Amino acid sequence: MKNYSSPRNDGGIIFGFVILIIGVLLLLKKVGIFIPSWVLTWPMILIAIGLFTLIKHEFKSLFGGFMLFLGSYFLLRNEFGFNLALDRYIFPIALILLGVYLITKKKKEQDLIRDIQAKWQVNQKKSSMGTSGEEVIEDPSDSKTYSGTGAKSSFGNMSGASFSDTLNIDAILSGVNKRILTKNLKGGKLTAAFGGIDLDLTQADIQGPVTIQVDVIFGGMKLVVPPHWDVRSEVSNIAAGIDDKRVYRDSMIDPEKVLILKGTVLFGGLEIKSY
C-alpha cells in the first residue's frame, strides 16, 4: 500500500489557534484586563483570514496577501488615523488582482493539458513503430484508448476537467465546477472562501490512503466520490454543517481505496455524495 504524506500546513491546527487566541482575548476582556479596542475589530478579522490563508498555502496565496493588506489598511485608517486616501483605488486593485489570479491559473491548466497531449503523441509514435510495453494514456471519460484524429478533439474540450494528480483548487468569491479524471490521485488542497466548489471524483482513482485538505469559510463545497471508496472525515466544523449523503454498502467498500478529509468548515457547508 502506498503512503501519502499530508500537506505540511494543517489548516485545522492553524484555525484552531486563531479561535483559541480570540477566546483568550475575550476572556481577558471580561475579567477586566485591558485589551486594546482595535484587537477585536472587523479589520482584524480580515487580517486573521489573510494570515490563515498565507500560512496554509506556504505564503504563496494572492488572496491571503490581499486580505492581509486590506485588513491592515482599514485598521491603520480607522484606529490609528493613518489615512492614505486609498479607498477609491481598493476596488479597482481588487479587480486587477483577481484578473491576474484567474489568468495565471488558466495558464497553468493549459500548460498541463499541453504536457499531457505531448506525452500522448510520443506514446502514439512509439506504438506506431511497433514498440511494445509503452504506456498508453486512456480516455478516463469512456475507458477507451485514444486513437486516430479523435484524440485531438478530446484534448481540445477540457472545460471543467483536470488530469492533475494533485488537487489545488481555490474558489474565492466565485464558483468552481471540476471533474477529476486522473487514475492516480495523490491528494491536495481545496479552499472555498465566500464561494463554492463542486468536485466530481467519480471517474478518478486512488492507490492506497489519500489525504485532501478541505477549508471552507463562508462558502460551500460538494464532493461526489465513487461508492466503493472508504471516505473518512476528520473535518472540524464551526457554525457549519457536514452532510454525508452516501448510501453505505459494506460489501462495496474497497479497503485499498481510503480518502481522508481534513480541514475546517466555518460558517459554511460540506456535502459528500456518491451514486
Tell me about this structure:
The protein is α/β, with parallel strands linked by helices and 275 residues long. The strands form 3 sheets. The protein has a 6-stranded parallel β-sheet, with no helix packed on it. A 5-stranded parallel β-sheet has the order 4-6-8-12-10, covered by helices on one side. Helix 1 runs antiparallel to helix 2 and helix 3 runs antiparallel to helix 4. The longest helix is centred in the middle third of the chain and has 42 residues. The chain starts with 10 loop residues before the first helix and ends with a strand.
If helices are DSSP runs of H or I spanning 4 or more residues, what is the number of helices? 5
Lateral strand order in the biggest sheet: 3-5-7-9-13-11
Give the N-to-C terminal Cα separation.
26 Å
- Outline, from the CA principal axes? flat
Overall SS class: alpha/beta
Main sheet: strands, sense, barrel = 6 strands, parallel
Helix fraction by DSSP (H/I, runs of at least 4): 25-40%
- Please state the average pLDDT score: 76
Q: What's the alpha carbon Rg, rounded to whole Å?
A: 22 Å
